Amino acid sequence: MANGVWNWTFLLCLLAGRASGGAGTLASPKGVYNSSTTPTDLPWNTYNYCNAPHVNVEHYIPPRNAPDAKLVYLNTVIRHHKRTPDNLYPNENELNSMPWDCANFEQFNYGGGGAHVFHKTVSPPWHPFLSQIWNGTCDEGQLTEGGLQDSIRHGQDFWSVYHHELGFLTSVSQQDIFIRTSTETRTFQVASGLLVGMDPGMASKTFPVTTQPSPIDSIPPSYPCPNADAIRTAFQSVPAWTDHLEANADLKARLDATLGTAGLDAWASWYDHFFDTFSSRTCNGHPLPCNSTGACVSQADAAKVFAIGDFEYNYIWNAAENATAYSQLDFGVFMLELAQNFKLFRSGQDPYKLRLYVGHDGTMIRLAALLGLGAIAPLRWPALGSELVMEVWESGKERFVRVIHEGLPVTSELAWTPLDAFIERLEKQVPANIMQACLGT
Ligand SMILES: *[C@@H]1O[C@H](CO)[C@@H](O)[C@H](O)[C@H]1NC(C)=O
Ligand SMILES: *[C@@H]1O[C@H](CO)[C@@H](O)[C@H](O)[C@H]1NC(C)=O
Ligand SMILES: *[C@@H]1O[C@H](CO)[C@@H](O)[C@H](O)[C@H]1NC(C)=O
Ligand SMILES: *[C@@H]1O[C@H](CO)[C@@H](O)[C@H](O)[C@H]1NC(C)=O
User: Fold this and answer.
1) Which family does the record claim for this protein (predicted)?
2) Given pLDDT bands bounded at 50, 70 and 90, which one contains residue 19?
3) Does the residue 305 lie in any domain?
4) Is 227 part of a structural domain of the chain?
5) Long-range contact list for 5-11, CB < 8 A, 24+ apart?
6) How far is the CA of 125 from the centre of ligand 2 (A)?
7) Nearest CA to ligand 2 atom 11
8) What are the C-alpha distances in Å from 356 to residues 137, 387, 415, 425?
9) What's the number of domains the chain is made of?
């Protein structure tokens, strides 16, 4: 967890204005942002924004404190894998030196009983609004072929542990495995990749994923919660937040000049959109944006944006005064679902061995924060493919939960906690009368 600490030092320098001298005085945050493959000279569990480290047989650590324990239940939550940018510059087309290609796997979407229709996105050269989107065959926020491959590999690694190593999951079957996703296509597609990674035979089979109606979905979350929004607005109005915007005004001005984003609120209130539009490019082998007069976003500025992104995510969901109250309102419905899962299991009534969720960065950061992982070290922006595994082990007559984050057991009491205590912990994160707490005056 030295990464987080290191980042804090870096950020404090930024805030103190000591890093304004440019790349010379500024180290990049520790991490990989330009490849799904972590270079072999770095530790396997290095933060890789493009493809997070996850449970795999080579590095899986069994519970050493209880060698006779048996795995009996599993809940896993992951973020989808890499995709095209989810945010667009006003003159998006100009800021791409190469087209985006999404024609390399078929985008199926058809009604059961109907023909197997798939859609092909095309940016027509003649389209009067072409300046607003890149050339090629991708929509915004679309899983790329590299992202699909990463999800297949993720499924293989998952299976290498929970099937081959532990023999817990015996086959990829609808009886044993429940999958829930958000309503975004990329989360269905990642589920399909995971399944094929677990069992290549799934490529020719169907498998259901469950979603909630989008207006009330608890992943990413999207149910309405104005009282949570108000808490966030308040803690993003104090110096603990606004200072970093002021301290980086030079950076922001440079980015605006190159990217045409001056005066746009969505690009000024936080660095989220810059982070997304840079990392989506670099993770997928595209260069950082260059505009039509040949000016480009520099590596050093991108590195600053990545570090600021970590600061902002940690602040909003972990460090801010009232961050916990915010997340409890905003994500309590998901925590309720988790608590229900574990209670159902405890009463012997969960028919599933594995409940698997595919969500978003917003899902992962809230879950990590509400599980208290931010108390161990500052939280970083949840990488693509970020993973939280909640294992239940049976030892004698007792059951324990073990939480594994980005491939390694956590170093808090969640490394081994009685099932009852874990359930209690989940339930504590669910505000009473949550709908009223979100909407009431
Ligand atoms: C990724 O970035 C690192 C550090 O900036 C650099 O050394 C490496 O060559 C880059 N790799 C690719 C594939 O661009
Ligand atoms: C994008 O397509 C337009 C229209 O065909 C073309 O003028 C432009 O050069 C293309 N840009 C890139 C980067 O390929
Ligand atoms: C946190 O919430 C309390 C109680 O509502 C409020 O008084 C305080 O101003 C909030 N702090 C911030 C930083 O928004
Ligand atoms: C390109 O970026 C440079 C440097 O930031 C800026 O001066 C110029 O106006 C930009 N050109 C366009 C067309 O946006």
Assistant:
1) Belongs to the histidine acid phosphatase family.
2) very low
3) no
4) no
5) 5/377, 5/378, 6/30, 7/307, 7/310, 7/311, 7/378, 7/380, 8/378, 10/307, 11/244, 11/307, 11/308, 11/310, 11/311
6) 7
7) 135
8) 30, 11, 20, 20
9) 1
| pLDDT band, very low/low/confident/very high, at 22 (cuts 50, 70, 90) | very low
Helix axes 272-283, 249-259, angle to 10 degrees: 60
Ligand 4 contacts CB of residue 258 (under 6 A): yes
Question: Whose CA is closest to atom 10 on ligand 2?
Answer: 135
* DSSP character at residue 202: G
Q: Dihedral sign, CA of 310, 316, 320, 323?
A: negative
pLDDT at site 58 = 98
Q: Which atom of ligand 2 is nearest to the CA of 123?
A: 2
Lowest-confidence range among 12-26, 90-104, 208-222, 285-299?
Answer: 12-26
Q: Is the pLDDT of residue 80 over 80?
A: yes
Q: Whose CA is nearest to atom 1 of ligand 3?
A: 322
Which SS3 state, helix, strand or coil, does residue 409 take?
strand
Asked whether 234 lines ligand 3 (CB < 6 A), one says: yes
* Minimum CA distance residue for ligand 3 atom 2: 322
402/393 Cα distance (integer angstroms): 8
Cα–Cα distance, 297 to 108 (Å, whole number) = 36
**DSSP 8-state assignment for residue 215:** G
What residues make up the domain containing 348? Answer: 50-221+310-441
Q: Is the CB of 34 under 6 A from ligand 1?
A: yes
Structure tokens at 20: 């304004």
Residue 289 falls within a domain, yes or no?
no
Q: Which of 34, 284, 305 to mutate to test the pocket of ligand 1 (most atoms within 8 A of CB)?
A: 34
Angle ∠(97,310,383) on CA atoms, nearest 5: 65
CB distance 293 to ligand 4 below 6 Å: yes
- How confident is the model over 267-312, as pLDDT tens digits? 999 999 999 999 999 999 999 999 999 999 999 999 999 999 999 9
Q: Which ligand is nearest to the CA of 97?
A: 2
Closest CA relative to residue 274, chosen from 250, 243, 306: 306
Is the pLDDT at 329 greater than 50, yes or no?
Answer: yes
Under the banding of pLDDT at 50, 70 and 90, the label for residue 29 is low
162 in a domain, yes or no?
A: yes
